[in-house]
Structure formats: C-alpha cells, structure tokens
From TrEMBL:
Domain Histidine kinase/HSP90-like ATPase: 186-297
Keywords from the named record: Kinase, Serine/threonine-protein kinase, Transferase
Domain of life from the UniProt record: Bacteria
Species annotation: Nocardioides lianchengensis
Protein's recorded name: Anti-sigma regulatory factor (Ser/Thr protein kinase)
Keyword Zinc: no
UniProt KW Acetylation keyword: no
Gene3D superfamilies the record matches: 3.30.450.40, Histidine kinase-like ATPase, C-terminal domain
Amino acid sequence: MDDLAGASDQKGPDVEVDAVARWVLRSVLARPGVARVAMALVEGAGRRLRFTSSDRLGDDGVPDWCLVDAYDDVPLTSVVRTGEPLLAAVGDLDARYADFARRQAEDRVAAVAVLPIPGGSGCLGGLVVYFAQAPAFDPGQVEVLTATAQEVAVRLEPRQTPQDSDPPSVTEPDGALVASTVVDGDPRAARTARQFLRRELAAWEVGNELSDVAVLCVSELVTNAVMHTGTPSELRVTLDGPTLTLLVRDQGRAQALPSPDGDPDPLRVHGRGLQLVDALAHRWGTEHDESGTTVWVELDRSATG
C-alpha cells in the first residue's frame, strides 16, 4: 500500500470525502462487537482502491489514505469487482483467502462483513466491518449493514461527480491496432458486438482461442450495460503487442430493458455477471462518472497460446 502524501492538506472535494469517511468509520466502530472499520473508493479506472480505516484516523479526525492494488486477492477487492457482499466468519475464509484469514486471526478478528458501496451505474468502492465476536448475520443485521453502505453512497455521489461529464479521453499507444463501434441499447446488442469483434480480430489475425475469450467477455459486458441502463454503448478494441483491451462504455441509467422471450441467440450469456469476466480476464476494472460507466478488460495474448 502506498501512502497518499499530503492528503490532510487537500481542499475541496477531497475534504468532503474525508468527512464521509470520518462519519462512517466512527459511527460503525461505535456499534457493539465491532473491532475495526475500513472504507475504500475506486480510482484509476478500477486499477486501484483508495483505502482508509478507523485505525488510520488522526487525532484531528482526518483519515490517512493509502492506495491498494485492485488485484490483490482479498475480500475487499473481490467485492468491489463483483458487487456481491461477503459476510463470513474468519475461519470460513481460510480456503479462499488464506493469508487474509491468517492475519485477521492474529488480530483476534472473528468475522468480517464486506459490502459494496453502490453507485448510480457502478460500484463506488467497499465498506469492511471487522468483528471481535462473530455475529449471526441474520437478515436484520445484514439489512443494517447494507443500509450503511447505501448511506455512504448517498453521501459520496455528489462529491464523486466530475465537473466535466464527457467520457475520459483514450490515448492509444503508437502502433496499436484500434477499432470501435456503437451498439444500440437493445437486448440483442450483444450479438452485434460479437459480430463486430470477431470481424476485427480476424482481420488482425488474432487466434481462435483468444478471440473466443474476447467474444465471451464483450458479450457479457454489453449485455450487462443494456440490462442495467437500456442505453447505447461504445465498444472499443485495442491490440497493443500481447495485450488485447476491450472497453465498453454506456451512457448512464435510462430504463433497463427485459430480455426478449424466446431469444434464439445461443451465445447469450447474461446472468453470469461479472464473475465470468473476472475468471477470464488478465486484468479488468470499472470507472463511472455522471455520464455513464466504463468497463475495461485486458486479455493476455500469450496466455492463450
């Protein structure tokens, strides 16, 4: 983790984010059985998390932030990537997160609750609650924890909105192959995206194995965008040496569309969620702003042979 030097000297939106962090860290820490609280926000197109915790609050109440690699294999990064909460006793995490479970046991943490902080069209970050005594995580407790993460989102959203709502600019490396298209906000858009991608990858002489993986990822990303926003999406494909990058950007939440009955397309994969992307990608992440959400995926050409 890299410390964010001078964070306490920052002004403007960062100070307001500090206030939200201070509120949630202190208020949740005061609850019975809670030993520690942490909060993280997505940065750098999902490549890293800006992290702080109750034991990083200064005497003046200003949180000390650090940067966490979004690809560290810990519950927080998994929850931020998938948007699915994780509530478990530390002992139950040993098989999946052995190092994390060992560290928590050494700190006498009995259980953790990791909640996504939801955004308008993506995940803003995550909230982690460490318990000295393992709670039952009954529906009432889960509802309270979920409501806390949602309240963090409500307080953060106005502060996370950029002044410029235009999509972030993309600078392509010299010599990279680039292709892009826009698909409609229609449940069948994934088919159009797959056809476009296969055509471009064939022209670039990309092998069948990598092409198949890329098509599966794009199908999921475009379908996810349509089902959650109902708006057109831009698909941008870049091949730079061994790295194939897929980028899908929607136009923000409009009206989510239901999937058509009797869809004859056998390659539709919606419903698997971003777990499929997580399993296939070398790296992936998200970035959201006032105008929509961007999801990017990197595939390693050499890894597929």
